[in-house]
Amino acid sequence: MGSPGSVWAGWARRKLDPLLVILKRGAEPKQLALSSAVGITLGIFPICGTTVILCGIAAALLGSSIHTPTLMLANFVAMPIELSLVVPFLRLGEVITGGDHFDLTSDALRMVITGQASRDVLLGVSHVMLGWLVAAPFVLVVLYFVFIPCFKFLVQKFSSHPPSPKKTHQPHPEPKPKIRDV
After folding, report:
1. Contact 29, 87 (CB under 8 A)
2. Do residues 32 and 155 touch, judged by C-beta distance below 8 A?
3. Between 168 and 69, whose confidence is greater?
4. Higher pLDDT residue, 168 or 3?
5. Over 50: is that where the pLDDT of 167 sits?
6. How far apart (Å, rounded) are the C-alpha atoms in residues 105 and 46?
């Protein structure tokens, strides 16, 4: 296995190369910001293996207002973050419901994997999902507004297409009265 630097470089290349291709095509910054925000928000959904399906549903529902490759790339980038947020979402769900503190143990994980989950484990899963459901709108809005200036800069810097010409507002000339020959 390579050095940590080469591993990081390979990981970054796999994530950044698709982004650079998207930016070079001159995509709309607001569309990229929305797509990235939705992709990351759905990518941190705490049930592993469901985020791609959620992103597919979001792409179908949002249609042309979203850039699907960016949505999926953001979902892919959010994957390492997903598991790290399970505990905060669990605790947020417990606070919201006033439920008992669920101890995360290897025994609880084994029971979930083998399908022998007890009521407490299922309640813990529902707390995690509730925590995500409450946090997701805030995450989405914050990411969207953070990403807009970032993508404006990146599209301007990396786009191979010239920016679309902005229409200048020209006041309409005053209508001239028509003179009729009599």
Report:
1. no
2. yes
3. 69
4. 3
5. no
6. 17
